[in-house]
Design goal:
By secondary structure, the protein is of the alpha/beta class. Helix content is about 25%, strand content about 25%. A 9-stranded mixed beta sheet has the order 2-1-3-4-15-14-13-10-11, sandwiched between helices. It is globular.
């Protein structure tokens, strides 16, 4: 065998490896970060990741502030589109590498099913706050099939009368918003300390005992096989509601939960923009005074598979 033949075989093998990596990465079977430098090569070919911020008409979150944060070159500089959920279809979702849902408390079961299908098809989903916890008027209550109730949580009855357990998709059971439970004194008022362990992926760079402020969704963690509690709140005392009851609330409620195959589903009880208050000099609803940009950076790079900055 000549040197030229050896070179041809090596080149052919390298081409096969390249094609295999492209297919496996495109189909979400592997993350690009598995091979050093591959994220840069891959996204230079297919185009840099696209982020969709999906929002509704009520609930926790500010989609336009979040868009500003994602597009900020000092934080991510990500390609971002912001769109109302009424104008989103299953085909639309497939065009994006990461989908973030915020300020969408009221959501019909068909839209909730759409987002679950996106996850089942390998999509990368970030669900925040109280999104999807209130159904449309007339939807059936899964706890009592004969009752029609708009406040349904993340377990629903679909149009073909099957149970949709979106709570299992995001590994969280919604209880209520913090400021509905306690008497909040304002959006910048101290709530407690954010805590994480040494194995945390998204929250690993957060300083110990980082202060937390603002409203958030109080949830109960569902321990599925792939569930990781990445960040939680140390309330520093029992959560006592307006009726002086402290028995039903966890003193250490989950704030960020990673779940799903490859950790591609993330639930954040705090809307992401609350972590990075770009308007801290102004008093607006939703301002928290926090500036933990590494939370959003690490979440983004975790989902797309590596740092391609």
């Amino acid at each position: 065998m000549t040197v030229f033949d050896i070179i041809k075989k090596v080149m052919f093998t390298l081409i096969l490896i390249f094609v295999l990596l492209m297919v496996l990465t495109w189909s979400n079977l592997i993350q690009c970060g598995i091979v050093p430098g591959w994220c840069t090569v891959y996204y230079d070919i297919v185009g840099h990741p696209r982020v969709l911020i999906a929002y509704g008409n009520d609930g926790l979150g500010n989609p336009y502030k979040l868009e500003t944060i994602f597009q900020n070159r000092d934080i991510l500089g990500a390609r971002t589109v912001t769109r109302n959920i009424d104008n989103i279809t299953s085909g639309t979702l497939g065009e994006y590498d990461v989908v973030v849902v915020t300020r969408a408390k009221t959501m019909g079961v068909d839209k909730l099913q759409m987002f679950q299908d996106y996850v089942n098809d390998g999509g990368r989903l970030v669900w925040t706050g109280d999104a999807g916890t209130t159904g449309l008027l007339g939807e059936k209550d899964p706890k009592d099939y004969n009752v029609k109730n708009a406040s349904l949580g993340w377990t629903r009855i679909t149009n073909d009368d099957t149970i949709l357990e979106f709570n299992n998709t995001i590994s969280a059971e919604y209880i209520d918003n913090y400021c509905n439970i306690v008497n909040c004194s304002g959006p910048t008022a101290y709530v407690g300390n954010l805590m994480h362990n040494e194995d945390s992926i998204i929250s690993q760079e957060l300083l110990p005992n980082a202060n937390m402020a603002g409203d958030f969704a109080v949830v109960k963690l569902i321990n599925n096989t792939s569930t990781v509690k990445d960040l939680w709140l140390d309330h520093r005392a029992d959560i006592i509601d307006k009726s002086a009851n402290a028995t039903d609330y966890d003193r250490y409620p989950a704030i960020i939960i990673i779940s799903g195959l490859g950790g591609k589903t993330v639930y954040s009880a705090i809307p992401l923009e609350f972590f990075v208050d770009v308007d801290s000099d102004e008093y607006r609803t939703g301002n928290t005074g926090m500036f933990y940009a590494t939370i959003i950076e690490n979440l983004y790079y975790h989902l797309i598979g590596g740092d391609i900055k």
